[in-house]
Write a structure and sequence with these properties.
Oligomer: heterodimer
Order of helices and strands of chain A: EEEHEEHEHHHHEHEHEEHHEEH
Strand content of chain B: under 5%
Distance between the termini of chain A: 42 Å
CATH superfamily of chain B: ABC transporter involved in vitamin B12 uptake, BtuC
Shape of chain A: globular
Number of strands of chain B: 0
Distance between the termini of chain B: 37 Å
Largest sheet of chain B: none
CATH architecture of chain A: 3-Layer(aba) Sandwich
CATH class of chain B: Mainly Alpha
Helix content of chain A: 25-40%
CATH class of chain A: Alpha Beta
Strand content of chain A: 25-35%
Structural class of chain B: mainly alpha
Strand order of the largest sheet of chain A: 6-7-8-3-9-10
Structural class of chain A: alpha/beta
CATH topology of chain B: ABC transporter involved in vitamin B12 uptake, BtuC
Helix content of chain B: over 70%
CATH architecture of chain B: Orthogonal Bundle
Number of domains of chain B: 1
CATH topology of chain A: Rossmann fold
Largest sheet of chain A: 6 strands, mixed
Radius of gyration of chain B: 20 Å
Number of strands of chain A: 12
Number of helices of chain A: 11
Order of helices and strands of chain B: HHHHHHHHHHHHHHH
Number of helices of chain B: 15
Chain lengths: 268, 328
């Protein structure tokens, strides 16, 4: 049982977003994808979801492309960064949409929604109008929706999150990761694109470091998050604090060449 | 929610009865009741109620319901509350093709079915064109602007047609440009009876339409084949709108205003928006039509003028409340 990507290459207009990427997502694990902007993290998630076709992607040894959309949606849930939702739905109505792939009946679905709402602390948000919520509140509702999609199938589910914590405040980041850890303990394979290396270090079982569409390093946090790897990936000098399995990373300075680029060209 | 639906149904019944009673000819409620029960009324009154007012009421309700439900579905599909079958050019595309059929091709099929079919082809072509422009332009404003262009083009072409048409045809062509239920008869009702089925099919897409408001990608992750859904909804809305256009001409803004009011008062889920829009659309067009034939009785104001008078300002307010989100 696993979601396997092998030899995934993807390009748009001569721009290589992924080059021969291999990745295996195991059940009961938390996987973090880290890397600079444009490294191909989102593209890799889209490949894993079966939306983009690149290389060979198999779910329990069956090619994802051959799994019917509805069946796939019951196994793989994906929370993208930018939801276009611009209609005044109630919060719980949005969460409910996670049940669309299931034909489990209204009563059952309501129970699932209630459980998710309780687990994620969304009671108050659920009755509010989505379009009036802040970015972080919308994100929490969307997380609830994605959880609903796989809630009764957690031991066989693969959940993909693209920068789930970007809009969340500190306490909600921690609540989010508590939920993620709960999912993993129930057998779910959770994969997250993260920009905060320390969150990745603290919560991930595996970290995959992507640079220019290629996997630079892969493994447990302490193995991947080394001074050299981080320097090579982000061009940033860091101090590694603590010597355990989950190191704490502190950026000391940007390396000279980045600094000079900013000096001459301005940021971005 | 049940209460709100009940209110809508009650209003619809009340509006229908009122519309049976009022009009250029003075017929009392007692006589109207007599027409339906004993039949013990003057022939002329019975004809007015059964063959003039009743089909017109049914037609108004069906067409209004079809346009409003289509508006609701198309707004969901385009993820924009400003989409309206008339605004994005679908109605005028259908009207142009109906006019083309009338002036150039009449006699190929018996009038009404051929006409409706022709309107359907026009409506379908324009919807596809608008979808494609929206896809390439990437924004909703591109789509709305395409609608402006298509409307202008259709009006120009209908104008051109008036030069090659006979006086009789010209009268009919003018009738579409304005939109009127004056031509209502039982044949029209027969053609319009397709509309409730279209609404039913749109209702079957309710959860998928909910999903697509999240985004095309997100809907696909929920197991929905987005391209197939788009084709079905486009076909259905083009069908409902074209039947409406063939029978009554272009009636603008009903498809825009009604779903908006429903979302405001009853929520955004298409499970509610589609049926409630159909009900309210029927009610509004019926009231508008009743007003249009009684305000200056015995003269009639085309009902399209009335809906535009109300809908135009409403649309402007909506645009202003978008607060720069349109990106024009």
């Amino acid at each position: 049982m696993s979601l396997q990507i092998s030899g995934a290459s993807y390009q748009i207009g001569g721009n290589h977003l992924l080059k021969e990427v291999n990745l295996t997502l195991q059940p009961s694990s938390i996987n973090a994808l880290i890397g600079p902007n444009g490294a191909g993290k989102t593209t890799l998630l889209r490949v894993a979801s079966g939306e983009l076709v690149a290389g060979e992607v198999t779910l329990d040894s069956i090619p994802v492309a051959e799994i019917p959309l509805g069946e796939r949606a019951r196994r793989i849930a994906f929370l993208t960064q930018n939801s276009a939702l611009d209609f005044p739905f109630k919060g719980f109505e949005v969460i409910q949409m996670g049940r669309i792939p299931h034909s489990t009946g209204r009563k059952y679905n309501e129970r699932v929604v209630n459980e998710v709402v309780r687990k994620c602390g969304l009671q108050e948000l659920a009755s509010r109008i989505y379009t009036t919520m802040s970015g972080g509140e919308k994100q929490r509702i969307q997380v609830g929706r994605v959880l609903c999609q796989v809630w009764d199938n957690l031991d066989a589910a693969y959940v993909l999150f693209d920068e789930p914590t970007a809009a969340l405040d500190l306490s909600h980041q921690l609540i989010f990761f508590e939920v993620v850890q709960m999912l993993a303990s129930m057998g779910t394979s959770v994969t997250l694109v993260l920009h905060d290396i320390n969150l990745a270090s603290r919560f991930a079982d595996n970290i995959t470091m992507l640079v220019d569409g290629q996997v630079l390093a892969e493994g447990p946090p302490a193995e991947v998050l080394t001074r050299e790897n981080i320097k090579q990936t982000f061009s940033v000098d860091v101090d590694i604090l603590g010597s355990g399995t989950r190191p704490l990373i502190q950026a000391t300075s940007t390396s000279q060449d980045i600094y000079q680029t900013i000096q001459t060209n301005g940021p971005n | 929610m049940f209460l709100r639906f009940s209110i809508l149904v009650l209003v619809l019944v009340f509006a229908s009865v009122t519309s049976l009673v009022v009009g250029a000819a003075n017929i009392s409620l007692v006589d109207v009741v007599a027409v339906f029960t004993s039949g013990d009324v003057a022939k002329i009154e019975s004809t007015i109620v059964l063959d003039i007012r009743l089909p017109r009421i049914i037609l108004a309700v069906f067409v209004g319901a079809g346009i409003a439900a289509s508006g609701a579905a198309i707004q969901g599909l385009f993820r924009n509350p400003l989409a309206d079958p008339a605004l994005i050019g679908v109605s005028s595309g259908a009207a142009l093709f109906a006019a083309l059929y009338l002036v150039l091709g009449a006699g190929v099929l018996s009038a009404l079915p051929g006409f409706t079919l022709s309107a359907f082809v026009g409506g379908l072509l324009t919807t596809c064109l608008v979808l494609e422009v929206g896809r390439r332009g990437g924004t909703i404003s591109a789509m709305l602007l395409a609608g402006v262009a298509i409307n202008a083009l259709a009006i120009a072409c209908i104008g051109l047609l008036s030069y090659v048409s006979t006086d009789m045809q010209l009268r009919s062509v003018t009738f579409w440009a304005l939109g009127s239920l004056g031509g209502a008869d039982w044949n029209g009702v027969l053609v319009a009876s397709g509309i409730p089925f279209v609404i039913l099919f749109l209702y079957l897409e309710r959860t998928r339409l909910n999903a697509i408001t999240l985004g095309d990608q997100e809907a696909a992750y929920l197991g929905i084949s987005v391209s197939a859904l788009r084709i079905r909804v486009v076909l259905l809305t083009a069908l409902a709108v074209s039947i409406g256009v063939a029978l009554t001409g272009v009636i603008a803004f009903v498809g825009l205003v009604v779903p908006h009011l429903i979302r405001l008062t009853m929520g955004s889920s298409h499970q509610i928006v589609i049926p409630a829009s159909a009900l309210l659309g029927g009610i509004l067009l019926l009231i508008a039509d009743t007003l249009s034939r009684t305000m200056f009785a015995p003269a009639e104001v085309p009902v399209g003028i009335l809906t535009a008078l109300i809908g135009g300002p409403f649309f402007i307010v909506l645009i202003m409340r978008q607060k720069g989100k349109l990106g024009i």
